[in-house]
Amino acid sequence: MVADKPPTTRTKVAIFISGSGTNMAALLYASRLSSAPYEVVLVASNKVEAEGLQLAELEGFATFAHSHKGQSRDAHDAAMERATIEAGAEMIVLAGYMRILSDDFVARWDGRIINIHPSLLPKYKGLDTHARAIEAGDSHGGASVHLVVPELDAGEVLAQVKVAIAKGETSDTLAERVKLAEHQLYPRALADYISRDSDPTHLLNRVRTVALSLPETSERASHGARGFRVGSEKSGKFFAYFNAQHHGSEHIALLVKTSGMDEMLNLIEAQPDTYYKPAFYGASGWVGIILNRPGVDWDNVSDWLTRSWRSVAPVRLTKLQDAADMF
Ligand code: GRF
After folding, report:
1. Is the Cβ atom of 117 under 6 angstroms away from ligand 1?
2. Residue 20 Cα to ligand 1 middle (Å)
3. For a pocket test of ligand 1, which of 46, 179, 190 has the largest count of ligand atoms closer than 8 A to its C-beta?
4. 114 near 37, Cβ under 8 Å?
5. Is 22 near ligand 1, meaning CB less than 6 Å away?
6. Please, are residues 314 and 239 in contact by the beta-carbon 8 Å criterion?
7. Contact (Cβ atoms closer than 8 angstroms) between residue 25 and residue 50
8. Of 35, 93, 209, 273, which is most buried with the most CB atoms under 10 A?
9. Which of 66, 117, 146, 246 is catalytic?
10. How many Å lie between the centroid of ligand 1 and the Cα of residue 83?
């Protein structure tokens, strides 16, 4: 799979299905590879007779079935969620799950539910994707793995694969080849998504997007780290550093300026999973925000970048920012 080394801790996932479960099977078998960064702790279905459940049982995976018939959406969602939580799942992977999840459910699992859809999104959301692609005369159909948000098939696309459409193709023949492509795509996309929490390039890009959106900022290398500055080339000052396992630390972290040693130590004491004292910089009140861990609060990261920027930006810029903030 994606990671070269076996991961030390695997993310626990629940797979939701409604039908044949061929994508589920691809995920189950991929999870047995030593490098897979996830393990499947539950296969759950809204259809008691779903074919995929039998295969999951045969392969020794825990299963849960709960029919949606005669139940409200909320009641059915709640039963599925309970089983998911009891199994210890940290993520939900939808694989042909033919039920729309309630907005509240999706909000509770924000960033932790993914789905596979048989089209090259944003094209052909919803049903009959293959027939629509053929009808439109497209050269390719395909599949997309995306994050689930309340709006149907509209979340961030994480990965896609294209499948050529032949002359005289029917939606059945196309669907068959798209499935083959899906089985390659889904385990890989899931692994990549899980690993991106510890991927320095992904984390640096997120930090960079926020840091460089602040006024008059630029990026510069600084002692082997990436630094972000405010002000002119000559007299500008650093307001943040991105450290990827720097100076022997195991953390990938963002360094920002606190008001001083007291505040820094208080933060570390209150939230030792989030903050740490970085080598060298800690002595002057810079705190490290740990980024390579699940559940990073990116709003907090963004607030810190803004605050740190303010603490070193020239007054003419902070004044402008104050004025802008009033609206
Ligand atoms: C797949 O085509 C997937 O894209 C869609 O539902 C189908 C599930 O098929 N969301 P299977 O049950 O995995 O065979």
Report:
1. yes
2. 8
3. 179
4. no
5. yes
6. no
7. no
8. 93
9. 117
10. 22
CB distance 20 to ligand 1 below 6 Å: yes
Block residue for tokens 């450290």:
243
Confirm if 66 and 53 have CB atoms less than 8 A apart: no
Mark whether 117 is an active-site residue. yes
Residue 171 in contact with ligand 1 by CB distance below 6 A: no
Closest CA to 214 of 88, 117, 311: 311
Could you report the per-residue pLDDT of 44-103, keeping only the tens digit for each?
999 999 999 999 999 999 999 999 999 999 999 999 999 999 999 999 999 999 999 999
pLDDT tens profile 269-308: 999 999 999 998 988 999 999 999 877 899 999 999 999 9
**How distant, in Å, are the alpha carbons of 37, 45, 94, 227, 297 from that of 42?**
16, 10, 12, 43, 27
CA 13/CA 92 separation, integer angstroms: 6
